[in-house]
Amino acid sequence: MAWNEPGNNEKDPWKNKGGKNQGPPDLDDLLKDIGNKFGGIFGGGKSGGGSGKSFSSIGIMVVLVVAILAYAFAGFFTIKEAEKGIVLRFGQYAGTVEPGLRWKWTFAERIIPVDMQTTRNLPSSGFMLTKDENVVRVEMEIQYRVVDSRNYVFSVTNADESLSESLDSALRYVVGHANMDDILTSGREAVRQAVWKELEKIIEPYNLGLIVVDVNFKDARPPNEVKDAFDDAISAQEDEVRFLREAEAYARGIEPRARGRVKRLEQEALAYKSQILLDAEGDVARFNKLLPEYKAAPEVTRQRMYLTSMEKVYSNTSKVMVDVEGGNNMIYLPLDKIMQQQSGGQRVNEQSSTTTINPSSNSNNTAPTLSGRNDRFNNGRD
């Protein structure tokens, strides 16, 4: 039977609440009752009996789940691409983590990211005393990067500061063992290499986890009080180097030509020597062939040799001298002019002439007298 049927008023929840027929509750009692139930979920009062205990257990579970989720999400972290993370568990080194999304135990582990790929710059400068007791201001800068994250963090208190102090020490040591002229002019590269070597020697025992990539010698100058004098000295040294380079270039240009000329003269001398030797050997061979003939007929051979020699001599000239027998006259024939006139189509008798040389008339040692014509030449031949 339902509680709201007639005759069943004892089962009415509003009238029989708590075993008493009290009637419907007012609004304040209803709100208070709802508040007590929600308070029991979070461990509130004990009103409500077994129902209150059930709501309290559910609240604790919800709180625990929320706390676990919050703790889990709080443990996620990210290591950048150029970094490496050092893990500290309760303050003690526990390893390293690679770049990417990682998770840690919150409140128990701490992550220290270390940049492993970026090249860092560290300058150093100051006034320093050189070996020859001069004061010079030197500026130098090094480039370095981290290669061992654990040593970089734990070997010393501050690896960057330790490297800076080591650079100052190495720079002052090298400058103190070098002359000022070398630092300002030609010895800059040697000073740079020496500083690099000395710096690596200093930091090696400390295991800083760093590597020196490069050392740059930026500037070196004397104090302002003596700067002008040193500028003049540097200009003079630069002029000296320039003149030496120009002289070397001139020598490199002249020497090959001189050597070529010497070689050409040597080749010409050797060629002339070979020619003379061959001509002499040819003459010896020719006279050796003529010797038997000369021994057999000396006069005939001598005459033939004379005629052969005269033939060679007169073959190279266009003028002919004719000695007329029985007289003191010598006939000169200008054959070159005769040939020119014949080639021009003119008559020889009208254009050419003969000249008679009378040696006896040259009593004053002057040039001989020229006279005569073609008819006299013809009479002399007859």
Automatic annotation (TrEMBL):
<dbReference type="GO" id="GO:0016020">
    <property type="term" value="C:membrane"/>
</dbReference>
<comment type="function">
    <text>HflC and HflK could encode or regulate a protease.</text>
</comment>
<dbReference type="InterPro" id="IPR001107">
    <property type="entry name" value="Band_7"/>
</dbReference>
<keyword id="KW-0645">Protease</keyword>
<feature type="region of interest" description="Disordered">
    <location>
        <begin position="1"/>
        <end position="26"/>
    </location>
</feature>
<dbReference type="Pfam" id="PF12221">
    <property type="entry name" value="HflK_N"/>
</dbReference>
<feature type="compositionally biased region" description="Low complexity">
    <location>
        <begin position="352"/>
        <end position="369"/>
    </location>
</feature>
<dbReference type="InterPro" id="IPR036013">
    <property type="entry name" value="Band_7/SPFH_dom_sf"/>
</dbReference>
<dbReference type="InterPro" id="IPR001972">
    <property type="entry name" value="Stomatin_HflK_fam"/>
</dbReference>
<feature type="domain" description="Band 7">
    <location>
        <begin position="74"/>
        <end position="234"/>
    </location>
</feature>
<feature type="compositionally biased region" description="Polar residues">
    <location>
        <begin position="342"/>
        <end position="351"/>
    </location>
</feature>
<protein>
    <recommendedName>
        <fullName>Protein HflK</fullName>
    </recommendedName>
</protein>
<dbReference type="InterPro" id="IPR010201">
    <property type="entry name" value="HflK"/>
</dbReference>
<feature type="region of interest" description="Disordered">
    <location>
        <begin position="342"/>
        <end position="382"/>
    </location>
</feature>
<keyword id="KW-0378">Hydrolase</keyword>
<comment type="subunit">
    <text>HflC and HflK may interact to form a multimeric complex.</text>
</comment>
<dbReference type="GO" id="GO:0008233">
    <property type="term" value="F:peptidase activity"/>
</dbReference>
<keyword id="KW-1133">Transmembrane helix</keyword>
<feature type="compositionally biased region" description="Basic and acidic residues">
    <location>
        <begin position="373"/>
        <end position="382"/>
    </location>
</feature>
<comment type="similarity">
    <text>Belongs to the band 7/mec-2 family. HflK subfamily.</text>
</comment>
<dbReference type="InterPro" id="IPR020980">
    <property type="entry name" value="Membrane_HflK_N"/>
</dbReference>
<keyword id="KW-0812">Transmembrane</keyword>
<feature type="transmembrane region" description="Helical">
    <location>
        <begin position="58"/>
        <end position="79"/>
    </location>
</feature>
<keyword id="KW-0472">Membrane</keyword>
<dbReference type="Pfam" id="PF01145">
    <property type="entry name" value="Band_7"/>
</dbReference>
<dbReference type="GO" id="GO:0006508">
    <property type="term" value="P:proteolysis"/>
</dbReference>
